[in-house]
Every structure is written in C-alpha cells, then in structure tokens.
Amino acid sequence: MALGLPSVLPNQQPSIGEVIRSSAPTFSFEFFPPKTEQGERLLWQAIRELESLRPSFVSITYGAGGSTRDTTVAVTERVATETTLLPMAHLTAVNHSVAELRNVIGRLAGVGVRNVLVVRGDPPGNPMGEWVRHPEGVLYAEELVRLVRESGDFSVGVAAFPYKHPRSADIATDTAHFVRKCRAGADFAITQMFFDADDYLRLRDRVAAAGGDTPILAGVMPVTQMRTIERSAQLSGAPFPPRLAERFARVADDPEAVRQLGIEQASEMCRRLLDEGVPGIHFITLNRSTATREVWQHLQAGARV
C-alpha cells in the first residue's frame, strides 16, 4: 500500500481527479479557515506538521453562508504558493448569486487553483433550517458543478452521504440525486464523516448498482472527545453507531482513554476500508495534527507488516 502524492513537475497543479485515478489510495486532509489570530497560528502549525507526510492534497472549507469566503481563497492561495501541498477550495451556494459564485471561481483560477469541492451548503446558524435559494443563485449542487466546469479547467469534487443526506426523503432518492450530481461533471466525491466502515461500503454498492462510477473518498475524523459523539448527527447527518457508543461510554470519564480509543477505532476502520479498495481517505483534522498523524502512523505500520 502506498499513499501519497505522485511525482509532478515543480509548481504544477495536478487535477485531483487525475491523482485519484492514477495513484489510489490517496491520503488527504481537510482544514477550515481561521477566524482569529490564534486560530491562524494553529492552522499553519497543523499544515506545517502534516506537510511532511506528503498527502495527496488538502482541502480548505467554506464557512456557512459564505462567511469565510475571502479567508478560504486566501488560505488556499497561501497553501498553493508557500507549501508543497496541492490545495482544493470548497465552494457553497448558500446566500450567493451566480455572479458572486463566478467571482469566487475566478479568484481561485487567478491564483492557480484548479481543484474545487462544491456543496450546496447549510443555512447559516441552523444546519437543519429551511434552505432558501438566493434569488439569483442556484438551487442544487449539480447546478454548481456545471457552473464550475463551465468556468475553466477545473477538477470538481462533490459531497457524498454514507447514511443519506438529512434532507433526502429516503436512501433511494438520495442515491439518485448523488449519481445525477456526479454526472453533471464531478471527477470524484468525498463522504461526510462516518464511524462505521459498513456505512461507506453500502453507499459504494448502491451507487454502483445505480450506474455511478465516480470515485468516492472516505471522510474520516477520529473521535478524540465525547462531544464528537454527542454532536454526531449534526456533524455527519447520521446517528453515532450504538455499539461503538457503548465502547466509548465505558471510558467516558477518562479523556485520554477516549482519545486513544478514537485513534484505535479510526485506524481499524481505515485499514478495513483500504482492504476493501477505497480510492482514498480524507481526514477531517479540525486544524489539529496529532490525532491524524497517529492514525497515519498506524496505517503505515500496518502496510509494512
């Protein structure tokens, strides 16, 4: 098993879609734009510490309602110009007109970024609140996919939901929406976080059965505190697996034991996913490096056995 970025020419910005198809399994990180000076220091500390692992790419999220739009572009540009990492910017449709979306896409192109993850996005303040389309915006993620693809030489990723999107009526409808979104021009997909490998495998199987062939990367976040479990439904759109919750409940009074169990569980899940042929693992870091590095070391140790 070899995870990481293939050799490329200096300053070349590869297409993440091509990277996934040529060097699977890939290994990547997700960061979020900081809102304070302290947050910025933590972010760049994590980026520098994880850069040495030579991930396939990194992604920078986009705040609810476009609240971190400028910071997302700025961080993505800095990653592109000041590190050896391949950056991907997230882009959401919430509260944006098509003209504003074109402006952001143009700014990304202007700094040499050609990889974008598009998601429709959640309403600011209440992720499960009513989704209101901007009067001059787009309604569905597939429209945003087309907009980005029509705007230049971009590699486009989309979101996938192992359980199902919280707004989907049922799993069959959710699968049909996902396949249609991919056929609009997506090169790859990244799942929302999940905590049971079977959830990913069921998603992959039902997408394949529906005729979808877009590579789906697994979005993984190690549980390092009990609060993650409590917020699981909000973070992932799915309830936390009951049997796994019982394991964490037994050590809930010991923060270090919770953290170690989370790293162990994430490592076990990632190993199984790799054995099952997952095209890549995308770690949601929360702008911290330690837990991700530990899981990565466990995977590398397993690969050398």
List the helices and strands and how they pair.
Blueprint: H1 16-23, E1 26-31, H2 37-51, E2 57-60, H3 69-82, E3 87-92, H4 98-110, E4 115-119, H5 141-150, E5 155-160, H6 171-183, E6 188-191, H7 197-209, E7 216-220, H8 226-230, H9 232-236, H10 242-249, H11 255-275, E8 280-284, H12 290-304
Parallel strand pairs: 1-2, 1-8, 2-3, 3-4, 4-5, 5-6, 6-7, 7-8
Helix pairs in contact: 5-6, 11-12
Major sheet size, sense and barrel closure: 8 strands, parallel, barrel
- Spatial strand sequence of the major β-sheet: 1-2-3-4-5-6-7-8
Spans of at least 5 consecutive residues with low confidence = 1-12
Shape, per Cα inertia axes: globular
Strand content: 5-15%
Tally of contiguous helical segments: 12
Structure summary, number of beta strands: 8
- At CATH level 3, the topology is TIM Barrel
CATH architecture: Alpha-Beta Barrel
Query: CATH first level: which class?
Result: Alpha Beta
Taken together, the total number of domains comes to 1
- What class do helices, strands and sheet pairing give? alpha/beta
The radius of gyration is 18 Å
User: What is the helical fraction, as a range of percent?
Assistant: 40-55%
Distance between the termini: 11 Å
Q: Summarize the helix and strand pattern as letters.
A: HEHEHEHEHEHEHEHHHHEH
Mean pLDDT: 86
